[in-house]
Automatic annotation (TrEMBL):
Domain C2: start-end pairs: 1-72, 83-223
Protein name: RAS p21 protein activator 3
Domain of life of the source: Eukaryota
Keyword annotations from UniProtKB, A to Z: Acetylation, GTPase activation, Metal-binding, Phosphoprotein, Repeat, Zinc, Zinc-finger
Domain spans labelled Ras-GAP: 290-484
Coiled-coil intervals: none
GO molecular function annotations of the record: GTPase activator activity; zinc ion binding
InterPro entries linked to this entry: C2_dom, C2_domain_sf, PH-like_dom_sf, PH_domain, Ras_GTPase, RASA3_PH, RasGAP_CS, RasGAP_dom
Length: 767
C-alpha cells in the first residue's frame, strides 16, 4: 500500500516465516498499522475453530526482530486487548459565574470523530462515553450511536463543572475549597452497540489529564485508542506456550522517478556491460548476503523495463563458462538461478494455474490411496492398486505439463532458449545438456514445488490432508524423474524455442511440429481439386510445406514474417477446419483434418510468432474472392482487417510493478552493504597491481575485469550517496513540519515517539 506524502510515497511490507509450519507469507501492510499480530487456533473434530492465543509485535519493535528466528510467548486474547483506531478530541476550559455570583470553571469536551475502528461481527455501531474522573468524583456522559460505520462523525460537546464552592453542613461530604485540576482526567471509552444479551463490546479508551490545559485554555489532538489498563495482565504470560517466527520488515520511502535516473540507468544497462560481472546488477548479487535478496528487486525492475531476458542470458552464459561438469550445470544457488526462479514465480503464476490446477483439484477430490512403501501401507490397502492409482495420477499431471508448451509465457521461453544455447555451446560433445539445462528449472524448480505444496502457489485454498500430501509428494518426485528423460524432449524443445535468428548459434533448427494436411494458396475461388495434400513442417526458424515427407520444401515462411494466425470462416471455401497464416504479401489458407488438429496448429504457430514486431492487430476472418473481402466487402485486397486478432493464446500477464520502488529497494540494499562495496573497490585495486596469489580477504568477490568493475563501483557508490543525501534532507524537512498529535501522528504512536527522539539527537529544531 502506498501513501502519498509531499511527493514521497511510503510502502511497507512484511515477510513472515513460521518454521514449525514451514511456511512463508508476504504481504503489503498499511502505513498506519500499530501491531503485527499472529493468532493460534485449535480446530476440533467438527472443524470449528477456537482461539488459543496470539503474538502481537509492536511496529517500533519489528526492527529488533528483523530477519532472525525468535520465540514469542503467546498472550491471551480478549476484547480489552483487541484495540485499533484513533479519536479526534478537543478540550476547552472557561470561567463562568453562577446564579449565586460564585466563579467556577466549565470544561467543554468535544468528541469530533473517530477513524479506523474495528468491525465486530460484520458491523460497527459505535458510541462513546466521556467521563470526568478525579479523586472525589466520576461523572459520565454518552454520545449518540452511529450506525454501520467504523469512521463515525460524532461532533458532540459535553460540559463538566470543575470548580465547586466550599461545602457544606453535612458531615458526610468532603470539605474543599476547589478541586485540584491537575488530579482530574477525561476518559473516553469507545463501544460497539450490541443487540445481544452479552452487552456492548469494548473498542478502546484514552485518558487525558487536565494538566494539558496548564499552558492554554484550549487543547486539540488526535489520539490512538488504547486497551484497558487491566487488559490481560493478571494472566501468566507463559501458560499458553510460544510461537517461533522469523519476520522480515521493510519500509520504503520512494521519491519521484527523476531522483532514481542515475542508479536506474546503471542497472538497466547491466546486460550490455562486458564482462557482465562488472555490471551494477551483478555487483549487487556479489555484495548481498543472500543472492535471493538481490534477485527479487532486480528481476522486478528488469521485468518492468523489458530487460530481464538479456541480463539473465548474460549472467547465465557467464556461469556456464565457469562450469566444468555438465552434470552440475545450474545446480547452485547462484544469482542466475535465483533470478530465473524469481522470473518464473512472477511471470509464470498464471501458466502454473492453467496447467496444474485442474489435475490438482481432481487428486484432492478423488482421494485415492497411492502409498507404495510397503511399510506405510494402511490396513486394507493393496500395493498393486495403489501403484495403479499413482500411475494414473502421474500420467494425468505429466500429460498436462507436456501438453502445455504453447501456454508457456514468452519471457520464460526466451530465457530457456538462452540457457539451451549457452549449454550447447559450452558442452558441444554432450547432446543432452541442452535439455537438462532447461528441465532443471521447469520441472525441478517450477512444476515440482507447486505439486508438492499447492497451497503455497494458490492451487488449493488450504493445506492438503496427510494422505493427499503424501500422494502429491510421490507425484512430484516422479515428475522430476520423468522430466529429465526423453519423454519430455518435445515439450522442452517447444518452451526453449525462439524465432530469433542468431548467426552464432550452434543449434540446428528445432523441429516443433509436422503433419500431412490440405492447403490452398492465393485468393481465387478453389474447387475441391485445388486443395492438395502437403506435408507441413514447423521449426523455431521457419514454417514450410513439402509435397511429401523428406522432400525439399515447396514454400518457406520465416517465423519473423508471420503476422497473424487465425481461423478462416467456413463461407470462404465452404469447408470446415480452415485457418490462415498471414504474411506481408499474402495469406496461406490451410485446411486441417479435424478441429483439434486445426487448433493445435493455430496455437503453436501463434506461440512461436507472438513476439514478432510487425504482428497485426486486425485481420480479415474471410477470404478475398471475386474482387472483395467476403467479411467486410472492402474492394481492395490491401484493405486493413475488419476484426481484432484473437492471438489464439492468452497474452502475457501484466505485472503490477513499480519501477521506482524497486530502484529504491536496490538503493537500500547497496546502502546497507556499503562496507562491502568499498571492500570490493579495494579488491579491484589489489587485482590490478598484485600478480601473486589472490588475497584471501578479497576472494569472495567475482572480479573478471578489475578496471571495469572499479568504474561501475565508483558510479554505484556515487548514485547511492546522492540518494542518501536526499533521504537525509527529506527527514530534516519533515521533522521541522511534523506535529505530534496530528491526524497523521496521533498521540500514542510509539514509533513516532522513537523517531522524534532520534531526530532530536541530531537536530536543534523542536516540534
Amino acid at each position: 500500500m502506498a501513501v502519498e506524502d509531499e511527493g514521497l510515497r511510503v510502502f511497507q511490507s512484511v515477510k513472515i516465516k513460521i518454521p514449525f509450519y514451514g511456511e512463508d507469507f508476504y504481504c503489503e501492510i498499511p502505513r498506519s498499522f500499530r501491531h503485527l499480530s499472529f493468532y493460534i487456533f485449535d480446530r476440533d473434530v467438527f472443524r470449528r475453530d477456537s482461539i488459543i492465543g496470539k503474538v502481537a509485535i509492536q511496529k517500533e519493535d519489528l526492527q529488533k526482530y528483523h530477519n532472525r528466528d525468535t520465540w514469542f510467548q503467546l498472550q491471551h486474547v480478549d476484547a480489552d486487548s483487541e484495540v485499533q483506531g484513533k479519536v479526534h478530541l478537543e478540550l476547552r476550559l472557561s470561567e463562568v459565574i453562577t446564579d449565586t455570583g460564585v466563579v467556577c470553571h466549565k470544561l467543554a469536551t468535544r468528541i469530533v470523530e473517530c477513524q479506523g475502528l474495528p468491525i465486530v461481527n460484520g458491523q460497527c455501531d459505535p458510541y462513546a462515553t466521556v467521563t470526568l474522573a478525579g479523586p472525589f468524583r466520576s461523572e459520565a456522559k454518552k454520545t449518540k450511536v452511529k450506525r454501520k460505520t467504523n469512521n463515525p462523525q460524532f461532533d458532540e460537546v459535553f460540559y463538566f463543572e470543575v470548580t465547586r464552592p466550599c461545602s457544606y453542613s453535612k458531615k458526610s461530604h468532603f470539605d474543599f475549597e476547589e478541586e485540584d485540576v491537575d488530579k482530574l482526567e477525561i476518559r473516553v471509552d469507545l463501544w460497539n452497540a450490541s443487540n445481544l444479551k452479552f452487552g456492548d463490546e469494548f473498542l478502546g479508551e484514552l485518558r487525558i489529564p487536565l494538566k494539558v490545559l496548564r499552558q492554554s485554555s484550549s487543547y486539540e489532538a488526535w489520539y490512538f485508542l488504547q486497551p484497558r489498563d487491566n487488559g490481560s495482565k493478571s494472566l501468566k504470560p507463559g501458560d499458553l506456550g510460544s510461537l517461533r517466527l522469523n519476520v522480515v520488515y521493510t519500509e520504503d520511502h520512494v521519491f519521484s522517478s527523476d531522483y532514481y535516473s542515475p542508479l536506474r540507468d546503471l542497472l538497466l544497462k547491466s546486460a550490455d556491460v562486458e564482462p557482465v560481472s562488472a555490471s551494477a546488477a551483478h555487483i549487487l548479487g556479489e555484495v548481498c548476503r543472500e543472492k535471493q535478496e538481490a534477485a527479487v528487486p532486480l528481476v522486478r525492475l528488469l521485468l518492468h523495463y523489458g530487460r530481464v531476458v538479456p541480463f539473465i542470458s548474460a549472467i547465465a552464459g557467464a556461469e556456464v563458462k565457469r562450469t566444468q561438469d555438465p552434470n552440475t550445470i545450474f545446480r547452485g544457488n547462484s544469482l542466475a538461478s535465483k533470478c530465473i526462479d524469481e522470473t518464473m514465480k512472477l511471470a509464470g503464476m498464471h501458466y502454473l494455474h492453467v496447467t496444474l490446477k485442474p489435475a490438482i483439484e481432481e487428486i484432492c477430490q478423488s482421494h485415492k490411496p497411492c502409498e507404495i512403501d510397503p511399510v506405510k501401507l494402511k490396513d486394507g490397502e493393496n500395493l498393486e492398486n495403489n501403484m495403479e492409482n499413482l500411475r494414473q495420477y502421474v500420467d494425468r499431471v505429466f500429460h498436462a505439463i507436456t501438453e502445455s508448451g504453447v501456454s508457456c509465457p514468452t519471457v520464460m521461453c526466451d530465457i530457456f532458449f538462452s540457457l539451451r544455447e549457452a549449454a550447447a555451446k559450452r558442452f558441444q560433445g554432450d547432446p543432452d545438456v541442452r535439455y537438462t539445462a532447461v528441465s532443471s528449472f521447469i520441472f525441478l524448480r517450477f512444476f515440482a514445488p507447486a505439486i508438492l505444496s499447492p497451497n503455497l502457489f494458490q492451487l488449493t485454498p488450504h493445506h492438503t490432508d496427510p494422505q493427499t500430501s503424501r500422494t502429491l509428494t510421490l507425484i512430484s518426485k516422479t515428475v522430476q524423474t520423468l522430466g529429465s528423460l526423453s519423454k519430455s524432449k518435445s515439450f522442452l524443445d517447444l518452451i526453449s524455442s525462439s524465432g530469433r535468428r542468431d548467426p552464432k548459434s550452434v543449434e540446428q533448427p528445432i523441429l516443433l511440429k509436422e503433419l500431412m494436411i490440405k492447403r490452398a494458396q492465393g485468393r481465387k475461388r478453389f474447387g475441391m481439386k485445388n486443395f492438395k495434400k502437403r506435408w507441413f513442417r514447423l521449426t523455431n526458424h521457419e514454417f514450410t510445406y513439402h509435397k511429401s515427407k523428406g522432400d525439399q520444401p515447396l514454400y518457406s515462411i520465416p517465423i519473423e514474417n508471420i503476422l497473424a494466425v487465425e481461423k478462416l470462416e467456413e463461407e470462404s471455401f465452404k469447408m470446415k477446419n480452415m485457418f490462415q497464416v498471414i504474411q506481408p504479401e499474402r495469406a496461406l489458407y490451410i485446411q486441417a483434418n479435424n478441429c483439434v488438429e486445426a487448433k493445435d496448429w493455430i496455437d503453436i504457430l501463434t506461440k512461436v510468432s507472438q513476439c514478432n514486431q510487425k504482428r497485426l492487430t486486425v485481420y480479415h476472418p474471410s477470404a478475398y474472392l471475386s474482387g472483395h473481402w467476403l467479411c467486410c466487402r472492402a474492394p481492395s485486397d490491401s484493405a486493413p482487417g475488419c476484426s481484432p486478432c484473437t492471438g489464439g493464446l492468452p497474452a502475457n500477464i501484466q505485472l503490477d510493478i513499480d519501477g521506482d520502488r524497486e530502484t529504491e529497494r536496490i538503493y537500500s540494499l547497496f546502502n546497507s552493504y556499503m562496507s562491502k562495496l568499498e571492500k570490493m573497490q579495494e579488491a579491484c585495486g589489489s587485482k590490478s597491481v598484485y600478480d601473486g596469489p589472490e588475497q584471501e580477504e578479497y576472494s569472495t568477490f567475482v572480479i573478471d575485469d578489475p578496471q571495469e568493475t572499479y568504474k561501475t563501483l565508483k558510479q554505484v557508490i556515487a548514485g547511492v550517496g546522492a540518494l542518501e543525501q536526499e533521504h537525509a534532507q527529506y527527514k530534516r524537512d519533515k521533522f521541522k513540519k511534523t506535529k505530534y498529535g496530528s491526524q497523521e501522528h496521533p498521540i500514542g504512536d510509539k514509533s513516532f515517539q522513537n523517531y522524534i527522539r532520534q531526530q532530536s539527537e541530531t537536530s536543534t529544531h523542536s516540534i
